[in-house]
Amino acid sequence: MKLCKKALSAWNGKYDLAVAQVEQTANKLDNAIAHLQQKQNQLGQWNKQERAYSLWDKSPQTVEMRNLAKGLQSPQLQERLSSITKVERQKFARSQASSPRQARLSA
Fold this sequence. Notes:
The chain is mainly alpha-helical.
């Protein structure tokens, strides 16, 4: 009878260990599945953002703005803008210089 009890308790210990390992494995699987679902949701969001960006990037307005920006960066246009800015500054400086004279003349 003692032999049976020892064998049964040894078997119960192995059974308990096996059950604990199965539970641990099930928990790891649950965590892995939850992590996978989270990453799939994140991937879905990224795909949605990519589609929105792609639509925006290919829209006629975006293409037009991109071409306009390239045109504004051309050396000829930059040189022309610099020239206009220089002339406007000179005009402003002359108007500022003549203002004190006009004030003195009208006084």
